[in-house]
Amino acid sequence: MASHGVARTNRSSTEEQKQQELDKIAKYRDLEGQVRSLVADASFTPDLLKLTAKLLRLNPEYYTIWNVRRRCLLTCGLSSKPSPGSSPSKALQSSSQNATTTTSSVASSSSSSTTTTTPPNPASQTTGKSGTTVDDDAAQAGLGDGSGTTDDAGCTEAREKDLDTLRSELGFTVPLLMEFPKCYWIWNYRSWLLQQAIERLQPQVARRIWEEELGLDTKMLSKDRRNFHAWGYRRNVVSHLESPALNGKSMVESEFEFTTKMIRVDLSNFSAWHNRSKLIPRLLDERKADEGARKKFFDDELVLIKEGLNVGPEDQSLWYYHQFLMLDLIEHDARPTITANLNVDERLDYITTDIVDIKDLLEDYDDCKLIYEALIECTLALSTLAKRNPSEEERVDVETWLSKLQELDPMRRGCWDDMRRQLGLSTK
């Protein structure tokens, strides 16, 4: 049996290998125990920071330890005050008493990446054994409440120290990110470090750090073009680089070109197509595109996606972007649109031409269910846009395509039968 192209085999271990695994687990548990003990005593010292580094190299999925590392930095690592107007860093919950880890992943020196789309927010305020909150710890470390504005020698020295600390922390996570590129907690920790740069450093210095981060993200996407973690992170980095806090300006043109580059390399890059669709409304607004420019832009996008479909009509990511363009014609009143000034007849002409082009694909790919689904959607869109019921010819075509879909995808028979009933067709 194979999974993702990798054959599964039964692995047997010798007694020596089993003992080595047990030794690794014992060392890991001992290290974890040391960290828990220091956290329980609210001893957020450089020694604890070193221990968290060892533990995270073994198991970067242990999100509680990332929170402990934040607390160490707030207590003994970062010394400058947050800039005026920025919100002081919130305390971070250790939750060490209830955290659990998977020792088997440690034994193999790897951990599986999470697949949820939104990680929990690790930031929350807690009270240690000493009765002080983490905000109190931060105040004791000289972070204050962000009210200091004097840029004297002491403040400059503190900022330089913080710059070194932040760069060191970012450097610490790079090898982990390369080995575990889909670990939420590494990306999340880097985001927190970058936010600290905004709060504690001069804007021009902080901006350089954020620009370097964009470069790292580009490198990560060159290694794995469809890493949706990196794509989501990129949108966050770009939004900050565009913000007034970093003296930013719009990057929509360069980011749009980046999606074009990534699509040219790999047509199956769903994240690049998605990012492109989100950039287009802003792009056209900032270009102050008139009716002619918008129509040309839409035509160019149609050509681009149809070129891709001619090469790989079985690629679902291409059909998603094709659907995005068709919905721009159909649902133009309910969304930011490229084709705002087209009249109904022009929209119908676009869809009719598109149906003809899709039918041409059937000559070489008559067993691709995505083509039939697109034909049904576009055909029904004609009647919706014209505010009429489907014609008899359209009903016959749809029934034929539904029969083919039922043959190609029998597991979704209920879906096809529902569609038949909605159109008043007999179920099979």
From TrEMBL:
Belongs to the protein prenyltransferase subunit alpha family. It comes from the Eukaryota. GO terms for molecular function: Rab geranylgeranyltransferase activity. This is Geranylgeranyl transferase type-2 subunit alpha. SUPFAM superfamilies: Protein prenylyltransferase. Residues 79-127 have a biased composition (Low complexity). One of its GO terms (biological process) is prenylation. Keywords: Prenyltransferase, Repeat, Transferase. GO terms for cellular component: Rab-protein geranylgeranyltransferase complex. Its EC number is 2.5.1.60. Residues 1-21, 79-155 are annotated as: Disordered. PANTHER family: GERANYLGERANYL TRANSFERASE TYPE-2 SUBUNIT ALPHA, PROTEIN FARNESYLTRANSFERASE ALPHA SUBUNIT/RAB GERANYLGERANYL TRANSFERASE ALPHA SUBUNIT. The keyword Transcription does not apply. Catalyzes the transfer of a geranyl-geranyl moiety from geranyl-geranyl pyrophosphate to cysteines occuring in specific C-terminal amino acid sequences. It catalyses: geranylgeranyl diphosphate + L-cysteinyl-[protein] = S-geranylgeranyl-L-cysteinyl-[protein] + diphosphate. InterPro entries: Prenyl_trans_a. Gene3D superfamilies: Protein prenylyltransferase (1.25.40.120).
